[in-house]
Queue: 2 jobs
Job 1
Amino acid sequence: MRSLFKKFRDGLTKTARSLAEKTAGLFGAQRIDAATLAGLEEALYAADFGGETTSEILEEIKAAHKRDPALRGAQAAVIGAAVLERALAGAEGVLPPAAAKPTVICLIGINGSGKTTTTAKLAHRLKADGQTVLVAACDTFRAAAIEQLQSWARRLDLEVVASHTGADAAALAFDAWQAARARGKDWLLVDTAGRLHTKGNLMEELAKIRRVLQKHDPAAPQHRWLVVDGSLGANSVEQAKAFHAGFGLTGLIVTKLDGTSRGGALVAIYRQLKIPVYFLGLGEQPDDLQPFSAANYARAIFGLDAG
Amino acid sequence: MFESLTEKLTSALRNLRGVGRLTPENMAEALREVRAALLAADVNFKVARDFVERVQTQCAGQEVLQSVTPGQQVVKIIHDELVGLLGEGATELAAKRPLRVLMVGLHGSGKTTSTAKLGKLLKKRGARPLVVACDIYRPAAIDQLEILAQQEELGFYCDRGSRDVPAIGRAALEAAKAANADVILFDTAGRLQIDQELIEEVKRLHAVVQPDEVLLVADGALGQEAVNVAKAFHEALQLTGLVLTKLDGDARGGAALSIKAVTGVPIKFIGVGEKTADFEPFYPDRLASRILGMGDVVSLVEKAQENIDQHEAERMAEKMRKADFNLEDFLAQMQQVKKMGSMQSIMGMMPGMSGVQLPDDSERQMKRTEAIIQSMTVQERRKPQLLNGNRRMRIAKGAGVKVLEVNQLIKQFEQMQKLMKMMKGGNQKKLMRQMEAMKGRGGMPGF
Ligand SMILES: Nc1nc2c(ncn2[C@@H]2O[C@H](COP(=O)(O)OP(=O)(O)O)[C@@H](O)[C@H]2O)c(=O)[nH]1
Ligand SMILES: [Mg+2]
């Protein structure tokens, strides 16, 4: 657990440090006052938590400050982390073993959110765990998307089913399922084309992928995960809502948290939709996909050590 | 979230417009809503704070306080401040030839696509572009650019064997010269602004190719960190412009405003779709309206002031509030609205209605509606309940339309009355839903 936290913390170090920087030692031994509270509000907004979570954290710290005017920054950080953890209660997605063969995970999201990279990382992770995986290159739209996945496949020794750019993504998903079944794979990972959540026709295409997979197995795709770019702000919530409405999301993956963004939008998404977060993307390397831990996330954000 | 933002802001501003006088209290209330709106639109916290302060100072000025319509004045100040922050008019690329453009940004922001799009745009304007693949890291990034370049018939340079990005840049300049290209666009790998190694690399590339334009490509939905990202890129590379992508979604683009406010780097282009043609010069006023999510309220206000008899408008508003609105009023209203311009352009300016596409024949439809009401007696217009089958037939004949159309109009009018009752009841949520539902059906004819 320690080393996991370290990895997570390393990915998020910039984050933790910059939140502390922003608050100019707010989370230290210094006493809380009006100025530090204003600084805290700013820091919370800067994490993209949005209004609701920000107010909640502020309110609790203010209330604690009222009870104890000598409240110090370090204590405020503990309160903040606790509020965050509470807001994220139940948000940790845990992937159960593949019940059906294959069990299908569909990765969807807007353009450039990190679907293809995450597909490769996830396949790598499952394989390292002793599971068998087939990957379907269902982004048949973007130029060289197939080559991108195939290049990962060569590097990580993954099995990929692919067609050509312009091919029907749903038909490919259908074939890939059959191939996965025939080869006795535990998992089928379906990488899909990026699409903005506002495009009705493209959302319909996703629904079609789901429908054809259901012809094989009414429960497929068992996992429908939205890949969200962690450096985005409030619009992530709109994205999640729309993809949820169109595709019935069962999980989230938040990427690019190795940058300075704190990915606070995931809290807003969870509050609204109660969709668990399975993994965080913390870099471009195959191993940079880490299981989400609400406690670690909350504590790292507030610059605390592992609980 | 965004609906409620629009709702809240619209109602705060409506309150402002309604009151005769600005008080410190109602000002503060409206400004709080504006701040919340800006933050919900991902405008940077500090930028939002400074913005609200400036608006406040301006509003405290004598002119606003003494104006007959202080609320409208405030809306205009807010909008003008936003446009001012975003910069005036479209900002062009340097005219120099050969023009060297360096495209940089975070991962997945849309650099490669934007490189091809910009190449296409400049080619259409008569240039001979060459695109250069400098992303040697992301798998198949070179292939992606090559395919796009082929599609758009742009010159293309890459060196698949090389791991030395500045050397690729140098060789590309030679290749461009040989190919007689006059615009050279360098697509680079996505990189974090804190990745020292990769920032050093792109700085070395910059030193070699000496670009005339350095464009930061940023996702229109970026969050609060956008400012720090842009600042770091700006410090390293002296950005000359911003390309804002994925604006065909519903992101409000507040990050772009913040980047502009903090770095002074102008937004030059926006990406509005996946096709290579979906790329446009940037106009600040459009983004201003988008950030506030209020349609082009200001132009609407101005247009209304020019064309609508203020007294008449107030009388109407009063009737609407009381839900005491008959077909005669409807006709008068319609004639007022007609003076303001095409229905489509007016809809575009209404908060929450900007996405509504009116059917092409809505102007004609409006004329028919007018004819129908004009064929009614004054009695009937005032008391639409009187309109039985016989009367409806007579009216249809008089207006030269089918009875079905008369029925439709009356039905829609009844719906509208219901809406007004809701407004009167203050049931805003229900009202918004109702309006959403009407959008789907193409809206009211003549309204
Ligand atoms: N720094 C960082 N980059 C990432 C991460 N995940 C993906 N990326 C990069 O983001 C870019 C877009 O990713 P891609 O997988 O092609 O996105 P897709 O369009 O959703 O399939 C690529 O340059 C990836 O290397 C992450 O966790 N951290
Ligand atoms: Mg992809």
Job 2
Amino acid sequence: MNTGQIRNFAIVAHIDHGKSTLADRMLEQSGAVKKRDMKAQLLDDMDLERERGITIKAHAVTIPHKKDGVDFLLNMIDTPGHVDFNYEVEKSMQACEGAILLVDASQGVEAQTVANAYLAIEADLEVIPVLNKTDLAHARPDEVAEEIENSLGIDATDALRVSAKSGEGVTEVLDSIIDRIPPPTGDSNAPLQALIFDAVYNEYRGVIVYLRVMEGTLNRRDKVLMMGSGKVYEAVEIGTFRPKMTPCEALGPGEVGYFISNIKTLGDLRIGDTLTLQGKPAQGMLPGYAEPKHMVFADFYPTNPGEFEEMREALETLLLSDSSFSYEPVTSDALGFGFRCGFLGLLHMEIIQERLEREHDLDMIQTAPSVTYKIKRKSGEEEWVLSPGALPNPDQYEEILEPIVRVSMLIPAEYVGVMMTIATEHRGVYVRQDYLSTTRVQLVFDIPLAEIMYDFYDKLKSATRGYGTMNYDLQGYFADDLVKLLILVNAKEVDALSSIVHKSRADIRGRTVIKKLRKEIPRHLFEVRLQAAVGSRILARESIAPLRKDVTAKCYGGDISRKRKLLEKQKAGKRKMRQVGNVDIPQKAFLSVLGSDDK
Amino acid sequence: MTFPRTSPPAAPLPRPEPGTALYVHLPFCATKCHYCDFFSVPAEGQDLEGMVESILKEAAQRAPRAPKTLFLGGGTPSLLPANLLQRLLDGLQELTGWRESVEEASAECNPESLDSDKAKALLDLGIPRLSVGVQALDDEVLELFGRVHKGQDGLRALEAARDAGVAQLSADMIYAWPGQTLKRWEDDLGAVLELTTQHLSAYNLTYEEDTRFKRWLDQGRLSKAPEDLELALFEVARELCGAAGLAPYEVSNYSLSGHECKHNINYWQNGTYLGLGPGAVSKVGPVRAGNPRGIASYLKWIDTCGHATQWRDEPDESTRLAEGWWLGLRLAEGLDPAAVRTAAHWQGDPAQDPALPVARELVDLGLLETSGQEAHERFRLTPKGRPVADAIAVQFLRQLGGNQDPKPTPEGPLE
Ligand SMILES: Nc1nc2c(ncn2[C@@H]2O[C@H](COP(=O)(O)OP(=O)(O)O)[C@@H](O)[C@H]2O)c(=O)[nH]1
Ligand code: SF4
Ligand SMILES: [Mg+2]
């Protein structure tokens, strides 16, 4: 197909601003999907995605559209709207020439709008602002247009006004994609250069690779070379998304589609790699993407130590369909063998954990998520510390460095004061504030990632009555006065319960953690003593009194098997627990080291 | 919905050797008590006679000859009219000759169906030991329990039995019910001990799965007695029984010397026994097996096959050991690890007995104590260990039972 009749675009939006709905409506109007085939939000197809209402994986789809008697193919790449999945957004952008910046006309510009719009601008895309949900009575399109101009410097006076819900204005959006977004360029006879911007694992088909042809032509049965990994595959099937996968014979410049080969796992594939022909390779690679940044780490241990191998298999399988987390074996004195897993963020961690339990029926103990630290040795060398438990003794290092993120909060002006206080309490350092309009402010702070990981977002939400949003970017690793908070259970240090905290907070943190543990750890036949310490200094102590009365069960009639099973059920109640020494510690207790301090 | 199968799903255990303890489960009660998880159903509209005939048919195939103990349990055996009791006990006599062999023969009775005539009838039929479910003396609590009798009825039944000449009389009492005070318990126990001079069982109320009480507890309509009170109630029972000359021979059982319940001691010693009737359980060798907790399937299977074995439980070696410790430690005399191994059919090297390290740990915690020489060392609960006997049982099951998940107990088809 003539590249002049192709347009490639992404929709970037803050979560819930209507991206999936708009995509559905476009497909419907184009006739690509019959109305009765429409499931709401056709593009979100994983169960979990539907349940949580977030788009996790980017999806691509081709929308045919006729304008002035000419047939066009518009390739749309749907992108996730949660900060955890930012890197997917970046990938998608590279495959496009333009982006629709979709803003909810009642909510206004929000943190993800700004973050994603900047990604689009940086990728040199033509950005088309679109105001959605104009059907709502409290829509304020004029003000929101002004917010777009002030926050992004994009002219939004003529921004399209649509209702993705009713379909109003959607044809105009399709038309303006054709008018405003430049067609892709590329020579169909040049050596093949195709960008791999995504891949999914399908149980039946194996790995499905999403690609965008930049130069040259990919034909079915071609032998292709992944320029980054050096691997060679045969393009067993190629095709486009309409929205179902539709095989074709060739994909030319500007086209977005898929290819299927005998690729077993997502791990074999590098997103951002350049695909070329083995027989006629391109000169160079396309600019690739950065590896996903793992912001949060947590250790997973099987509840039953015998299930380590099962856990490894489950993680391997999961990696087939989500290459954006990582795992490596770890050992803990307290918990034995397990895996340290890296995630894009907390939501990503929860999703992975849920999938492990749901799809693989694993019972596991998960340690509190933490960020990664670095230590600077006396020699000046820097070293990663992947978990608080792994931090060496203070005499082994000069300083501890922690990741600092630049947090951008978009909030109604009246909440600036309270958010400043909250950010400062989280060891935030003020950077700047900008008024997007008379009522909305962008407030920027540098805050340690560890401080915002747990409940900062919730605090922002509640302090701004739900109107505030935030986004963050890694700034780098910086030193601070950090110490390791040890937790001792019956005088024995439990590495999986230790954490790294700011020195000034150690006391209160220690007291809070110990109090929580006291609530979470069940009573035993003996006293359980809990202590929090920094070095050899004990900061807090509590004890859990032993059980004094637990007798009872009438047992005669010989129905001993049943009674035993009842007792064993008490034991099974301990499934979500791990024994450390002879103390049963439930899963929830391991998460106690997170959370807010008592005042 | 499962339909009753036409034949029992499991093979019956072999007929145990002569002398084995015999249990008969009579699953009918006046009403269903709200805390009860025994297999019992309201008697109204049930074919009592048919049940007796079925039990005899099952006995013909399974009952041991010359049992040493006989126990009629339930349910409420005293609810059967005298003629049916006679039919049952005479029938069993023909099949086993129990009247000549037993050292002890008991029947459970409830106040509403125990008067002096019933007591005499039982005595005449060869049952000298009656265990009466008095449970409580407070009318309101009895109503909360869902029992049909009043407080005074319990005392009257004990009196009637005593006056009818029952010389082995036991009372069942429940403590730690919602709202119970120490004073109430002392008064009630005192009143009961005046009338039952031989034996008393005092059970801590438990909230069992699938009972109304459990549901009410979960809904917050009932609340458990505080731990300190439970403990005090437990200790007071020991004191008052002791003062009345009844020694604690098991965590919940007290008796005059020589009046310990032999039949129950056999369970606690993890011995062999044979159970007849719906829901009844048997243990022969290392294997336990049970009849369905359902009337219809029991009757049907007995009718077609003469036995109604619905499930078998063959715990592995170390679980059997754990069971032995759990049960044996309930006895005041404690246990001899060698005897536990024998009863558990444990084959391994005694030096490798996995229960011993668990036991020693509990000794270190002051929950168990030992007596006797190395070779004949006995273990028993200390005063501190006694009130946490169940938690101690869980320790043994847990550390010895490996990681195997409890197999679900197959339940009979719902009726
Ligand atoms: N009233 C109204 N609601 C809309 C419109 N577009 C989307 N929504 C609703 O907004 C919510 C979020 O939409 P969704 O498409 O999932 O947003 P996404 O997170 O950006 O993909 C859903 O409940 C939609 O039904 C619109 O134009 N008008
Ligand atoms: S009388 Fe005994 S067996 Fe019958 S329902 Fe009440 S507690 Fe259960
Ligand atoms: Mg969506």
